[in-house]
Amino acid sequence: MRCPVCNAQVSRVLESREVEDGVSIRRRRECIKCSHRFTTYERLEVPNLMIIKKSGERELFDREKLSRGIYRAFEKRPVSADKIELIISEVERKARGYDQAELNSRKIGSLVMEELLSVDDVAYVRFASVYRSFATLDRFEKELKKIKKLHN
């Protein structure tokens, strides 16, 4: 594993633990050369999953793309990176749990929104505004009313 600071190839493992209900292993490492500490994750390699986009195009499921969208929704919110990683893993687990080679992008979006709603309303609204392409303030207000109803 290369050090993200000095690019050295030798590091030592300081701590290892299972995360995401045993699906991954989190390792804290320290670079032998520059002493920088960093975290790596080891995950089970799973078969490819194709996503059918709204346009009809197909692309491979991309955990990093999913991760970017979810992290963007949580920007400046009081939610830990560990919690966000759990959400990403849960969405991926559910998506792969359908045991299908192809899955509609709307289903992925729904899975994300379900997870976000249970954790942070603001992140949910941020994601929903992009995912559902809110074009008007009225549509945005309807979504806010829906959230308020759930909390009452």
Structural overview:
The protein is an alpha+beta fold and 152 residues long. It folds into two domains: 1-45; 46-151. The chain contains five helices and six strands. It has helices at residues 63-73, 81-97, 105-119, 121-131, 137-151, and strands at 11-19, 24-31, 37-43, 50-52, 58-60, 102-104. The chain has a three-stranded antiparallel beta sheet, with no helix packed on it. Helix 1 packs across helix 4 and helix 2 runs antiparallel to helix 3. It is globular and about 55 Å long.
In terms of quaternary structure, the protein is: single chain
- C-alpha-based Rg, rounded: 18 Å
Instruction: Estimate the helix proportion, in percent.
Output: 40-55%
Largest sheet: 3 strands, antiparallel
Helix-strand category: alpha+beta
Report the average pLDDT across residues: 89
Q: Tell me, what's the shape?
A: globular
SSE diagram, text form:
Blueprint: E1 11-19, E2 24-31, E3 37-43, E4 50-52, E5 58-60, H1 63-73, H2 81-97, E6 102-104, H3 105-119, H4 121-131, H5 137-151
Parallel strand pairs: 4-6
Antiparallel strand pairs: 1-2, 2-3, 4-5
Core attributes:
single chain, about 150 residues, alpha+beta, 3-stranded antiparallel β-sheet, 3-stranded mixed β-sheet, 6 strands
Summarize this entry quickly.
By secondary structure, this protein is α+β, with helices and mostly antiparallel strands. Helices cover 45% and strands 22% of the residues. The strands form two sheets. Strands 1-2-3 form a three-stranded antiparallel β-sheet, with no helix packed on it.
